[in-house]
Amino acid sequence: MKVAIVGVTGYSGTVLWQLLSQHPNVTEINIYTTQADLEAVAQQFDWQTKQTVRVLPFDAGQIMADNDVAFFATPAGVTGELAETFMANHFPIIDLSGDLRLQDPKAYQKWYHRAAEVSRETLSYATYGLTEFTATTTDYIANPGCYATATLMGLAPLVQERLIDLDSVIVDAKSGVTGAGKKLSQATHYVDVDENFSLYKLNQHQHIPEIMQQLKQWAPDMGPIQFTTGLLPVKRGLMATIYAKVTADSADVNEIIAAAFQATYMDKPFVKILANDMPDLRLVVGSNMTAIGWSYNPVTHIVTIVSVIDNLMKGAAGQAVQNFNQYFGFDETAGLAQLPLMI
Ligand SMILES: NC(=O)C1=CN([C@@H]2O[C@H](COP(=O)(O)OP(=O)(O)OC[C@H]3O[C@@H](n4cnc5c(N)ncnc54)[C@H](OP(=O)(O)O)[C@@H]3O)[C@@H](O)[C@H]2O)C=CC1
Ligand SMILES: CC(=O)N[C@@H](CCC(=O)OP(=O)(O)O)C(=O)O
Asked: Cys-Cys link to 67, which of 4, 103, 205, 303 (CB 3.0-4.6 A)?
């Protein structure tokens, strides 16, 4: 299988390259760049891999002629523009940006503050690739956002089984700094991040409509969510702490919630449900795992769910490879055997 990566010099593009370099079904990796110096990129990625690696200027026609699939690890807006030709030719693409996730171009304009590059009709052919819940995969795969992935994975069993009040969800999520991409900004400057913790994009985060779009598919009467994001002074890792009012009022609430998580995730290789514990970032960073813990408070009737991922793995490149595996019918875990770093 020959794969193209666009945006390899970014954080998630680099992790994507690492994963595809070790993928048993990938024979050739072709790197395409719109802006970087070809020789510098070639040097950066000229490590020993079993595949052939070539670095070339971006050319849609050549990418389609020389590859079986193209991964876009480029910013929102850029992907939409670059990927148009691929979609016009029904060439398989896996997009890590938000450009193919929202079905409604008006919602995209509102939350991304720019006009959508992709038409409503084309969007309707895209698969929102939340892999544990993807039934069928089309040629255009919208890889979910990192916060959206952790939040949806934590909420899925409770919303699908309607175990919570659908108007009561509050999400307090935090990410490591690689989530912001490699471009330096005041907020991600070392001096501002180190030994600090700050909130950002309050009530304005672009993952809110993406999360709502999916939740409403699971429960059409889903109410709005309260959603907060914060910047942790770590490189990788994302934690979503989710609060919701439980509707069931019986002595066996704990058993009901446990059974819902168990039924949803028992055959999912990349999900770990902790029985009586809360996950921390170290449990997942470096791996494609989602670890979920929960606790029910019988006094307030609130369930707290903690969902953690590595933003660059399950939140980006790892899930993209899972989508690649699903699309081509490879083993779901192919290329994704990495254990967490742990220390
Ligand atoms: N970082 C994360 O945790 C997550 C990121 N995402 C999404 O994945 C995509 C990539 O993210 P990330 O790796 O963080 O991004 P980075 O900012 O780290 O890298 C983006 C790469 O895109 C390429 N690029 C092409 N055109 C532009 C442009 N106009 N401005 C900047 N870069 C450009 C460059 O690669 P080159 O020079 O090689 O062409 C660049 O290195 C984004 O859409 C992001 O929203 C999604 C989930 C999580
Ligand atoms: C720490 C940080 O800034 N994180 C980014 C996550 C971006 C991301 O996941 O990208 P998509 O918008 O493509 O999903 C943010 O909150 O915007």
From this structure: 4
List Cβ neighbours of 298 (8 Å cut-off, separation of 6 or more).
Answer: 253
**In the predicted model, what is the mean pLDDT of residues 197-202?**
96
Provide the 10 A C-beta neighbour count for residue 300: 11
pLDDT tens for residues 29-77? 999 999 878 888 888 887 767 777 789 999 999 999 999 999 999 999 9
Question: For domain 2-144+314-328, is the CATH number 3.40.50.720?
Answer: yes
Ligand found nearest the CA of 177: 2
Spell out the domain ranges in the chain. 2-144+314-328, 147-311
pLDDT digits (tens, 9 = 90+) for 116-128: 989 999 999 999 9
Q: Could you give the CA distance from residue 120 to residue 343 in angstroms, rounded to a whole number?
A: 45
Q: How far is the CA of 180 from the centre of ligand 2 (A)?
A: 6
Among protein residues, the one whose CA lies closest to atom 23 of ligand 1: 7
* pLDDT tens-digit series, residues 47-56: 767 777 789 9
Ligand 2 pocket mutation, candidates 141, 198, 207, criterion most atoms within 8 A of CB: 207
Which two three-digit tokens encode residue 130?
């939340």
Tell me, using a 6 A CB cutoff, whether residue 16 lines ligand 1.
no
Task: Report the alpha-carbon distance of residue 341 to residue 326 in Å, rounded.
Answer: 26
Two domains, one topology: 2-144+314-328 and 147-311? no
Polymer length in residues for the chain = 343
Neighbours of 1 (CB within 10 A): 17
Q: Is 263 a residue whose pLDDT tops 80?
A: yes
In a 3-state reduction of DSSP, which class is residue 94? strand
Q: How far is the CA of 258 from the centre of ligand 2 (A)?
A: 31
> Which fold is adopted by the domain 147-311?
Dihydrodipicolinate Reductase; domain 2 (3.30.360)
- Rounded to an integer, what distance in angstroms lies between the CA atom of residue 326 and that of residue 111? 29
Residues that are catalytic: 146
Q: What are phi and psi of 21, to 5 degrees?
A: -65, -25
